[in-house]
Amino acid sequence: MRRPSPETTAATALAARYRAVRDATTRLAAPLSAEDCQIQSMPDASPTKWHLAHTTWFFETFVLEPSAAGYRAFDRRFRVLFNSYYNAVGKQHARPQRGLLSRPSLDEVRAYRAHVDAAVQDLLERDAVDAALAAAVELGLEHEQQHQELILTDIKHVLATNPLGPAYRTALPAAAADTPAPLRWHAHDEAIVEIGHAGGGFAFDNETPRHRVLVPAGALASRLVTCGEYLEFMRDGGYARPELWLSEGWDAVRAGGWSAPLYWEQRDGTWCAATLAGERPLGAAVPVCHVSFWEADAFARWAGARLPTEFEWERAATGVEIDGNFVEQGALHPLPAAPGAGPGPAQMFGDVWEWTASPFVGYPGYRPTAGALGEYNGKFMANQWVLRGGSCATPRAHVRATYRNFFPAPARWQFSGIRLARDAGR
Ligand SMILES: [Fe+2]
Fold it and tell me: Does the global pTM surpass 0.85?
């Protein structure tokens, strides 16, 4: 019997991973009707149908077109329709108008997925899967996982916008603890630390080059900020005190009429929040989420603390097991920190993306990937802030200590929350 070469084994593993990731996307969309999949509730949030098609477009454009000789496009018009922001590929359908596409139908988009899946599987079953092809497939899978999270955050916005308060899924576990674990501080000394991807395994270009950073002495909170603590900030006039806010944040409060995190509503004196299981009373020990960078920063100032830099966060997360409340857990909502004192800060991974005090810029010596894929991250390195750690909507295998998510300061529809930090001597 002929033994498979290492390249064949690697290609087989990649094909299996391709199927698993693509199937996971299909499962996420399964509870949704065609009408659900059609809606775009705001310019930032795309319809599920668009996500299903765009992730497929990514493989068609960056894997099949360059590598699959004789590949026939499912529909050439999709090249523009489902291009998100790649100017090097060509024109794009306007982002705020994605919800106006009643055609192609959801069934046609599913057929598009099947067409591309068959072609990619065929490609991966050939003998010659070179490093460039494997890297393009790997990037497509990581990209698809990013869109899996967006499917959940975007449909949450769609459903929360509906006065009927529909649920994505009803059988979600309720938070158990009413009392949060006590907040403690984990101090660190001043040190020069290595930051960024060290090689081995996948990383996005924005996680490189690895470089040295001086991290001053300080401390990180042992857990995330809870809804109960955030309510104290609100009751102390947090949204009415300009001295707590950065100037643009205060403008956002007034312009948006903000008086609570996104999705919070008061019902007969009780604060409730929309979840993917419909509206539920707030859990005092549940990590607060759906706050903007402005709100995270104002809360930290009110608490006599600050947001961590991405570097002190990464230093604390390095070597920590990537375990926590990820999408696979099925909670689809942040959960209270487990009681008990671990050796380091808890909830570093999963639950909520943690806003940091670090602007999203390239690391020293950063160079975007060559070609159209150089547009993936590099061109967004202005006016955005870094978030770390993954959320309850993130696939577990997608996150690592060096992972840099980024959103503009006003963004609230992601599962974004707060971990406090403070300087030494406080
Ligand atoms: Fe995308």
Answer: yes
